[in-house]
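User: Quick sanity check before I run a bigger batch. Here is a single chain. Can you write out its predicted 3D structure?
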Amino acid sequence: MIGFLQGRIAAKTAPAVTVDVGGVGYELEAPMSTFLNLPAVGETVHLITHLVVREDAHILYGFASEEERRLFRNLLKVSGVGPKLALGVLSGMSVEGFTRCVMGEDVATLTRIPGIGRKTAERLIIEMRDRVKTHPGAPGAPGRASGSDPQSEAFDALVALHYKPVEATRLLKGIIAGSHTTEELIRLALQGALRE
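Assistant: Done. Predicted structure follows.
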């Protein structure tokens, strides 16, 4: 298994990039989130990789971060999701954005990604719910910096108060934008729930 590549970018044409590692050119496919942040041709790059072996091809995928690769691998475990669709998900949104969609059961946002219909979006939400909780930065994930994001902390608190994730997301979206503390967000969300 090839865990990562470090070398000089020999060529790049979205979504493919060729990395020269000691005179050997490795062709990789990368999500747009990674591709758009690649340095110029001729410069050095470090990409974390995942190798997919099929009957007709061995395809190497490259990612800028371990979080992207972890999400890619978890997506491949979902029935009906192959590498092309998993790459599409990572090209369409960040790891954090995908995690919010799954935890908030946001089918509408997921269906905006090319290749994902309503049934696939619902399957992603159901099958990925427990897997995204382990991603750093996910609401309630271990290792998340406390106090770093009042919105996420308010979401966690509402879920702890037995609101479904989709309800918590809807209540928080209903709050007028501003620099609110976690406590203010929770109070405003609960006031919004009482008005309904």
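The chain has three domains: 4-64, 65-143, 145-196.

User: Great, the batch can go ahead then.
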